[in-house]
Design a protein that fits this description.
The complex is a heterodimer of chains A (283) and B (680). Chain A is built from nine helices and no strands. Chain A is an all-alpha fold and 283 residues long. In chain A, α2 packs antiparallel against α3 and α7 packs antiparallel against α9. Chain B has 680 residues and is an alpha/beta fold. Chain B has an eight-stranded mixed β-sheet, sandwiched between helices. In chain B, strands 21-22-23-18-24-25-27-26 form an eight-stranded mixed β-sheet, with helices on both faces. In chain B, strands 1, 2, 4, 5 and 6 form a five-stranded antiparallel β-sheet that branches. In chain B, β5 and β6 form a beta hairpin. Classes of the chains: A mainly alpha (283), B alpha/beta (680). At the A-B interface, α6 and α7 of A face α14, β21, α15, α16 and α18 of B.
Chain lengths: 283, 680
C-alpha cells in the first residue's frame, strides 16, 4: 500500500533528526537575535583594525575594512535561512498544486503542465537563476524567487508521481462514487497521504536551495554589498585568501554547518516518515 | 508399511523473538509423509502454515528459534542438511508465479539453472532437459517457451514453469504453498490435474498448503489442520472432511459457501480472531472462539486418537455430533420474489481500452503512423438488476467484470451504450442523486479506506456530502452505521491500520451504506478475506439485502460465493455475457459450454476423487479468437466448426429470462449433464 504511516507517539526519533534540528534551531535563533548579541555593528568600518586574525575581541577576526566578521556572519545568517526555506517553500506552493492538477486531470492539462516543467528543467539551474536576475535588479527577494523557480519542476514531478499512485487507490474511487469534486478529493484524500514523501524531499531540497542561493550571491546576483550574505562574503574575501583566510573561511564553515544540519534533518525525517526506509520490516 | 516415511517431523516449535516477547509461530507440530502421498495443511492466515514450509526448507527467517525432537527427510536431519537438499531433493512452488520467476531471465535458463547447479549438467544438455520438463508439465511448443521471458506467458503457464523448475532435479518431495491461489479456476483445475499425475506417475510426496478445502479434498490423502501454531486435527483427508471432530475444523467447513449447495440460509462464521501468539495459552487456544468451550478447556490438551484421526479437544467426542450453533438446521428461506421492476438497466455497454499511445514506427523501411492496440474490455453488454435483487457476475480474471462494475456506476466512461436507473437515463456525469443511490464496495480492504481518516471521518462525510445529517444527528447516524455492520461505536476513533481486514471491509460496507443507497456494486467484496471472516461478511450482506431491500451487482470469481448469494447469475467471458439467468437456471443444464467448464472446474468438498466428469479447458482466457465469431470458440470443447469462428453466436432462450449465446442447438445444450457435483 502506498499510504505512509503517521508518526505515532512512542516512536523513537532518529538521532540525525534531533542533532540536525538542534543545529538548525541554534542557527535560526542566532539569526533572529543577531542584532542584539552582535558585538559590533556589522557594517561599521574600523580602519585601524583591518585584517585582524581571530582574537578575544574579534572571535572570527576582521575583514579588509576592519568590520567584525563574527557580527557580519550573524547578520548574514538570515539570508541563507530565508533563501533555503523561502525558496523551497515557494517551489512547494507552486509545484505541489501543479503536480496534483496534472495527476488528477491527465490528458492535455497534464501534457501542458509536464511539458512546461520539462522546458524549465532543461535549463541548468544556475543559468536560469542568472537569466532571471540578469534581466531585473538583484536583491534578496529576487534570489529567493529565482531559486524557488528552479525547484518548481522537481516538486511538480514528485507530487504528480505521488498523487498518481494514490489516485489509483480504491478510496479515491469511493470519493468519486459520492460525487466529491476535484478540490475535495485532492485536499482530503490525496494530500494527507502525499505530504510525507513531499516533506522529506523538501527537507533535502533546502540544502540545495541554500547552496544555489549562496552561489548566486557569490556571482553577485544576490543581496548587494555592503550586505553580509555568506556567499557574498566569501566572494569578497577572495583577494585576501592568503593574507587573511578567516574572512572567507568563517562564513564558509557556517554555511557548511547549516547545510550538514539541514541535510541531517531531511534524512531524519525520511527515516521517521518513510516506512520503506525503516529496517524493522514486519510493521 | 514398515517403510520409512519420506518426511518425519516430531515436536517442531518455532519462535520469533520480538520486542513484545517471542511470537510462537509453531508449537509441537508433528507430521509424517510417505512417498507418493499428499498431505494437506489448512488453517486461517496466521496459523503458521507458511512458517512450517519455510522451516522445512531451512529458511525460517532471521532470528527464528527452531526446536524439534526430530526433523528428518529420508533419514537425513533437515536441521543440518536442508540447504543441501532444497532445490535438489525437495522442490518448492510458491503462491505467486509472477514473483517466483526472474523477469530478466528466459524460462529455459530458469528451469535449467538447478540442473546446471546441482547436477553439473552442461548448459546445452540442461536446456534440452528443460524443454522436456516443460513438455512434461503440459506446456505445448516447449522449444519456443524455453526462449520466452516470463512476461510473455500467462499466469497458468508461469506456474507450470515454476513447477517444472521444482521438478528439474527429480525431487522426492514437493512443498506447495497455495500453488493455485493466484490462478483462475479453469487454470487451477489444469494445475491440480498435473500435480495429481506427478504424484501417481513419479511417486512424488507433496505437502500442500491451501486455504481452499475443495482443493485439499481433490488432491490430498492426509490432512493436518493448524490453528495458531498448533495441530488441532490430523488424519485421512476424506475422514476429516466428511466428519470433522475438532470444533475449529467443523467451523472452517461450515464457513465455506458451496457452489453445489446453492442458496443456504446462512453461513456459520467463526467468531473472533487468532489469539495473541506472544502470550501462549497453555490450555486450548481455540477456547475463546469455540461454541462448546467449558472451564475445563483451560487445561492443557493433548493430540489424542479418536475416530481414526488425532484430535486436540477433550470434548471432541461429547460435542462431535452436536450441531454447530449458528448453522440452523432450518431450510433456507423461501426464495424471495424480488420485484420485477428493474432498478438498473444497462443496454449495449461497450468499453475499449487503448494499449499504449499512438506513435511512429518503421514498417518495411517506411515511417508509418502506428495505431495503439485496442482491448475491448466490455463488448455490447446488456442486463438489468431489479429492486432488492442480487445479480451475481462471474468470470475469470481479465474478463471485464470489474470494468463493467465501474461502468454501471459511471466511474468509468462507456464508449457506447445506455444506462437507466430507476427509469431515468444516467449520463456520463451523473446527478448527485444517482451517486447517492448507487454505491460500491471494493475488493481490497487496505486500499478502500483512506489511511489518514478515522472511521468517524470516513462515515460522517457521505452524510454531510449528501445533506442527510449533520451535527448530533450525524453522530447518531455514524453509530447506526457501525451497528449495521456489527461493530461497536468505540471503533469511531480508529484508523484503518488499527483494524483487521474483516473490520476494514465492514467499514467499507458501512461507508457505502451511509448514503442509504438502493444499489451497491460489490467488486470481489469478500475475496481478500479468510473463510471465517468471509462467512461473516456474506451473512452481513445478505442480512442488509433483506433488511434494507438493497440490490447488488455482486462481482466474484468464486462460484461458491455467487451461488450462495445471487438470485440471478451472469457469466462473462472476454468482455461479453455468455449466459444469464436465475441462479437455478445457470447452475444446472442447459449450460453455455463455458459455464459447464467453469462449474466442473470448481473443486468441491465432499466430491473427492469421485467427480465423475470433468471438462478441462486448454489454454486460458488470453486465447484470442480470430474472426468475428464466438469469443470462446478457441477454447471451446464443444465447438462445432467454422461457424463458431466466423458468425457471432445467436442468443438461445431455454426458459424465460434464461439466455445463452451459443451456436449449439438448444436440445444439445439442454442435454449436457450436470457439471456441479450431485446437487445440481
Amino acid at each position: 500500500m502506498s499510504g505512509v504511516a503517521l508518526a505515532r507517539p512512542g516512536r523513537r526519533w532518529p538521532a540525525s533528526l534531533v542533532v540536525g534540528g538542534a543545529v538548525v534551531g541554534v542557527i535560526a535563533l542566532l539569526a533572529i537575535l543577531g542584532p542584539w548579541i552582535a558585538p559590533y555593528p556589522p557594517e561599521e568600518f574600523a580602519v585601524l583594525d583591518r585584517l585582524r586574525p581571530p582574537s578575544a575581541a574579534h572571535w572570527f577576526g576582521t575583514d579588509e575594512f576592519g568590520r567584525d566578521v563574527f557580527s557580519r556572519v550573524l547578520a548574514g545568517a538570515h539570508y541563507s535561512l530565508l533563501m533555503g526555506f523561502g525558496a523551497t517553500g515557494l517551489s512547494l506552493l507552486v509545484g505541489v498544486p501543479l503536480g496534483m492538477l496534472a495527476a488528477f486531470h491527465r490528458g492535455w492539462v497534464e501534457e501542458a503542465v509536464m511539458r512546461g516543467v520539462d522546458l524549465l528543467i532543461s535549463i541548468p539551474p544556475v543559468l536560469l537563476g542568472l537569466l532571471i536576475l540578469a534581466t531585473t535588479d538583484p536583491g534578496l527577494g529576487k534570489t529567493v524567487a529565482a531559486v524557488g523557480l528552479v525547484y518548481v519542476p522537481i516538486m511538480t514531478r514528485l507530487s504528480r508521481a505521488v498523487a498518481l499512485g494514490l489516485l489509483a487507490e480504491d478510496f479515491v474511487d469511493a470519493a468519486r462514487a459520492r460525487a466529491d469534486g476535484m478540490v475535495r478529493i485532492l485536499w482530503s484524500e490525496i494530500l494527507p497521504n502525499a505530504w510525507s514523501p513531499i516533506i522529506v524531499e523538501t527537507a533535502l531540497r533546502i540544502t540545495f536551495a541554500i547552496l544555489l542561493g549562496s552561489a548566486l550571491s557569490f556571482l553577485g546576483l544576490g543581496p548587494q554589498p555592503p550586505a553580509s550574505e555568506w556567499g557574498l562574503m566569501i566572494a569578497e574575501s577572495r583577494p585576501f585568501i592568503e593574507e587573511a583566510p578567516w574572512i572567507g573561511l568563517m562564513p564558509g564553515l557556517c554555511l557548511c554547518a547549516l547545510l550538514v544540519a539541514v541535510n541531517m534533518v531531511g534524512e531524519g525525517l525520511r527515516d521517521l516518515l518513510d516506512p520503506r526506509m525503516r529496517g524493522r520490516g514486519h510493521g | 508399511m514398515a517403510e520409512q516415511p519420506l518426511l518425519d517431523v516430531r515436536d517442531l516449535s518455532l519462535r520469533y523473538p520480538g520486542p513484545r516477547g517471542a511470537v510462537r509461530a509453531l508449537e509441537g507440530v508433528s507430521l509424517s509423509l510417505s512417498r507418493g502421498r499428499v498431505m494437506g495443511l489448512v488453517g486461517e492466515s496466521g496459523s503458521g502454515k507458511s512458517s512450517l514450509v519455510m522451516a522445512l526448507l531451512g529458511l525460517p527467517g532471521t532470528g527464528a528459534v527452531l526446536d524439534a525432537a526430530s526433523m528428518q527427510f529420508d533419514g537425513l536431519d533437515l536441521r543440518q542438511q536442508a540447504a543441501a537438499l532444497r532445490g535438489r531433493r525437495i522442490g518448492m512452488v510458491f503462491q505467486d508465479p509472477g514473483s517466483a520467476l526472474n523477469p530478466a531471465m528466459t524460462i529455459g535458463a530458469q528451469v535449467a539453472e538447478p540442473l546446471v547447479r546441482h547436477l553439473r549438467m552442461s548448459r546445452q544438455d540442461a536446456l534440452d532437459r528443460a524443454a522436456a520438463l516443460l513438455t512434461e508439465v503440459g506446456i505445448a511448443r516447449a522449444e519456443s517457451v524455453v526462449r520466452a521471458y516470463p512476461h510473455q506467458l500467462s499466469g497458468g503457464m508461469k506456474q507450470r514453469a515454476v513447477i517444472a523448475t521444482a521438478l528439474a532435479c527429480e525431487p522426492e518431495l514437493l512443498l506447495l504453498d497455495e500453488p493455485t491461489t493466484a490462478l483462475d479456476v479453469t487454470v487451477e483445475a489444469q494445475i491440480l490435474d498435473l500435480l495429481d499425475r506427478l504424484r501417481r506417475e513419479r511417486g512424488v510426496g507433496m505437502l500442500l498448503v491451501s486455504h481452499n478445502l475443495g482443493i485439499v479434498d481433490r488432491l490430498c490423502d492426509d490432512l493436518t489442520v493448524l490453528y495458531a501454531g498448533r495441530v488441532v486435527e490430523q488424519g485421512a483427508a476424506a475422514t476429516l472432511l466428511a466428519a470433522p471432530r475438532h470444533p475449529y475444523t467443523r467451523g472452517l467447513l461450515a464457513a465455506v459457501p458451496r457452489a453445489d449447495r446453492g442458496r443456504m440460509g446462512r453461513l456459520a462464521p467463526i467468531p473472533g480472531g487468532l489469539p495473541d501468539l506472544t502470550r501462549p495459552d497453555p490450555g486450548c487456544n481455540f477456547r475463546p472462539r469455540c461454541a462448546f468451550a467449558l472451564p475445563s478447556c483451560a487445561a492443557p490438551q493433548a493430540l489424542a486418537p479418536q475416530d481414526g484421526r488425532l484430535v486436540r479437544c477433550h470434548r471432541a467426542e461429547a460435542v462431535g455430533l452436536a450441531p454447530l450453533p449458528g448453522v440452523t438446521g432450518a431450510p433456507p428461506p423461501p426464495p424471495r420474489r424480488p420485484s420485477d421492476a428493474p432498478l438498473l438497466i444497462a443496454t449495449e455497454l461497450t468499453k475499449t481500452f487503448r494499449l499504449g499511445r499512438p506513435g511512429l514506427a518503421l514498417r518495411g523501411g517506411r515511417l508509418a503512423l502506428r495505431r495503439p492496440a485496442e482491448l475491448r474490455a466490455v463488448d455490447d453488454v446488456s442486463f438489468h438488476v431489479a429492486r432488492g435483487e442480487v445479480l451475481g457476475l462471474v468470470g475469470e480474471s481479465g474478463c471485464g467484470k470489474s470494468t463493467l462494475g465501474r461502468m454501471v456506476l459511471r466511474l468509468l466512461g462507456a464508449d457506447a451504450g445506455r444506462l437507466r436507473f430507476d427509469g431515468q437515463p444516467v449520463t456520463d456525469r451523473p446527478a448527485v442523486e444517482f451517486r447517492r443511490r448507487a454505491q460500491i464496495v471494493f475488493q481490497n480492504p487496505n486500499s478502500s479506506l483512506n489511511p489518514r481518516q478515522t472511521v468517524e471521518q470516513a462515515l460522517r462525510w457521505p452524510l454531510v456530502r449528501f445533506g442527510l445529517a449533520r451535527g448530533a444527528a450525524a453522530d447518531r447516524e455514524v453509530d447506526r452505521l457501525l451497528e449495521l455492520v456489527r461493530l461497536p461505536s468505540s471503533y469511531r476513533a480508529r484508523y484503518p491500520h488499527q483494524m483487521s481486514g474483516g473490520e476494514k471491509q465492514r467499514i467499507g460496507i458501512a461507508r457505502a451504506l451511509a448514503s442509504r443507497p438502493d444499489f451497491v456494486v460489490c467488486d470481489e467484496a469478500v475475496s481478500a478475506l479468510d473463510v471465517s471472516v468471509q462467512a461473516a461478511v456474506l451473512n452481513l450482506l445478505s442480512d442488509l439485502r433483506d433488511e434494507l431491500g438493497l440490490a447488488y451487482l455482486f462481482i466474484s470469481h468464486d462460484i461458491g460465493v455467487i451461488a450462495h448469494l445471487a438470485d440471478r447469475i451472469a457469466v462473462m467471458y472476454r468482455g461479453a455475457i455468455v449466459e444469464i439467468g436465475t441462479a437455478e437456471q445457470v447452475l444446472s443444464p442447459a449450460y453455455h459450454p463455458y459455464t459447464e467448464a467453469l462449474l466442473s472446474a470448481v473443486p468441491l468438498v465432499g466430491s473427492g476423487g469421485r467427480a465423475a466428469r470433468r471438462v478441462r479447458l486448454t489454454g486460458d482466457a488470453s486465447a484470442v479468437p480470430d474472426g468475428a465469431g464466438c469469443r470462446f470458440a478457441p477454447r471451446c470443447p464443444r465447438r462445432i466448426g467454422g461457424v463458431c469462428d466466423t458468425v457471432p453466436p445467436p442468443v438461445r432462450q431455454p426458459a424465460p429470462g434464461h439466455r445463452i449465446a451459443c451456436h449449439l442447438p438448444l436440445e444439445t445444450l439442454a442435454a449436457i449433464p450436470p457439471a456441479l457435483g450431485e446437487a445440481a
